[in-house]
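User: structure tokens for this one?
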Amino acid sequence: MKKFRWLKLATRAGALAVVLTLCARGFAADTVQDFSAIFPPPGVGGNAPSILPYSATAYSIAIIDGWDGNALRLTTEENSLTTGASFNQGVSGDWSQLQVDFDMSFSPGQGGGADGMSFVFVNTDTWGVDNNSPFPNWQLSEEPNLSGSFGIGFDTFNNADQGDNGESSVSVHFDNTRLDSVGLEGSDIDYGDGMLETGSPFHASITLTPAAGGSNLTVQLTNLDTGDFTLPYENYLIPGLSPYQGRAAFKARTGGANSEQSIDNLSIALTPSGGGAVQTWSEDFESYDVGDLTAPPVPDNPPLVGGTPYTEFQGGSDPHTLLRNSTNDGGAQPGYMQLTSNTAGQANSIAFDQTSDVADNINATFKFKIDDSGNNADGMSFLILDAGAYGDSGELGSGFSEEPNLPGVLSIGFDTFDNDEEFGDGDPTGCGTDIDGNAGPCSDRRANHFSLHWDGTQVLEDVLLDRADFDLVNNEWNEMSLVATEDGGDMLVTLVVTDGTDGSVHVIYNEERVSGASFPGGARAAFGGRTGDANSLQSIDDVHISWTGGGGLRGDFNNDGVLDASDIDDLTAQSAGGANLAAYDLTGDSLVNGDDVTEWIKADDIKKSWIGDANLDGEFNTSDLVVLFSGGKYETGDAAVWSTGDFTGDGLFTTSDLVAALSDGGYEAGTRAAIAAVPEPASATLMLLGGLFVVRRRRK
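Assistant:
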């Protein structure tokens, strides 16, 4: 499959060269979206929380307009809520001091307010470092008793049976035990009649410092409306608490009485025990959209940060497109886009913003999954739009999906239901012959084919696939690769699908000519999904599209204007894969094999180098040996490409590759351009290299 190279600008001169190139060709940037940047990553506005409700009543967690911009609301003024939010690990390492700060607010609520909330520095040895780990559940929110972990409880209701000592109190917990509790009545803070539950925000500052026999704790609470503060704990020794690796978590609860409880401006600072810069991590929730987070354990359709923007369109019945997190259903990806659900009558699409005004060469890869719902309809589509006609952003609408016949659009249809009239009037049990060739009446009107469309017309007959070889509805993440290359006013289209069930590769189209296909206004991408009377769940992920202008370099398979490792590694992988795609056939024999690999490296109009030139600097010498063996592929049976030793195109790095390199005569001979005649390798050189390879192999 195509691999895309990310360009890194190492010098100002290199940056200037790239800018000049882009100015000459027009702006061109990849379209990239993996749907996984659901929350801002560490260092860019915070860290990703895992939000879990424990309540049978209304789900209450939401991003709200708080006292300092956004805040995270844990509970509303409803009875019997228990919710929690845990965060990925943001700081790590041994520490000589741990400083935790956050704001919190408790509304007066009804019935006196209840029950409280807590902070826990979750021990990651037990509970894991991120939100793929189990949620650190403790029994009562305001009583944070969690094994191996330190916590502070903020209690807003006097539950005498739990040993509470007032309507507002602060408690200390470590390793599944409550060590102490301090009532706040009569303290220096002005709490008013409701104590903590005034609706005013409070700032909590928690400091842990290792000491003899444990760690000293200091807790300070400050009323942010009045400036009053109190110290419930000052240098309180927690026996047995020594520095450990942790992450933040909160939990809140309402009982028969209730309270709205929220947090904001969380930060953790770790002072390394061996000196050095203090590590800090923070989350102020400002990168989130205000609104309910409605679907545990993570929200559907949360704010998306990063990647190419897109516009959604909902046609027909609910629900609309949904951003999903893999923990919802055990998926392989951190996040993905669900185009349709198992609901009839949907017709949804997403259209990406334009990222390039050139589209002579298009390389697109993405993953797709269609889940079996029993009747499976109707299908999906992938589209490339002329931005001159459709604009550089905005919705695409519906009415196309598995039959994407739109003017000025090059598209692929994925059809999973046969709507052909010869199969009857639409009754799934009334067709004459099903997709597997069984005589009717059949119970399966499953279609299983791809179609190619341009400018409002299907340009080729459907490619029907045997479901035993590849089934579109296989409940797995499959990968699609599309290459469309300008050729004399037409486009040559290659489409390859990798089966997510067994990794098999299926060539759907191989340089099929689409007459008149072009994108004079640049291009952008879109996806559509549709369900009819029957339905299926259709999803996409990991979209990556490279748009480039005409370059015409032979062997430049990713059309970036550079002949480099990404091209030759791609070619060796294609040779080993055996798909024989015409775009990689450099010798014109309708095969893609070792001869094409040799052509790429030695041809005067391509690389003009030696077999064995692993680092592609034009020479074969000891620096290439270092590259080869640092890859660790020699005689292991692991898949290899050119840069890791596969010089013959068989997908492995073995003795045959060394023989090919040595037989080419380029070892320590300089560049091929400087050599008039290619000498045979000296026997001494052969023996020396052979000895090196043997020694290296024995050391493995």
